[in-house]
Amino acid sequence: MQRIKTGDQVLVIAGTDKGAVGRVLRVHPKENKVVVERVNITKKHQRAQQAGRRQIQPGIIEYEGKIDLSNVMLVCPSCGEASRVGFRMTEGGKVRYCKKCDEDLD
Fold it and tell me: Please, are residues 48 and 60 in contact by the beta-carbon 8 Å criterion?
């Protein structure tokens, strides 16, 4: 089970975007990285291409880059603060919980 999942609200605690809050768009568990909405914006210069019927327009494309998982902290939906994530066993199985307010996240 992962500490941070897609759709979670996170706070960036290190790097150039320190202090930014955003929603997790994608999680890459093998690389130990996440993609956060409107954080770590990267520019890519793209050439015009013609692949089959469709054409790819030239220009500068902005997209969210990956951030290391250790540089983000989960924002608890119940207490609204960035906190660490713990796990506990219930009848339904393993559940994530906020270590500050002791509320279940799932």
Answer: no
What is each CA distance from 20 to 59, 70, 71, 80, in whole angstroms? Answer: 27, 15, 11, 14
Provide the CATH number for the domain formed by 9-49+58-98 in this structure: 2.30.30.30
Tell me, what's the pLDDT at 89?
A: 95
For 7-19, the pLDDT digits (tens) are: 999 999 999 999 9
Cα separation, 98 vs 106, whole angstroms: 10
Residue located via tokens 């906020």 = 98
**Domain boundaries in the chain?**
9-49+58-98
Residue numbers in the chain where pLDDT is lower than 50: none
Q: Could you tell me whether strands 66-68 and 33-36 are parallel, antiparallel, or unpaired per DSSP bridges?
A: antiparallel
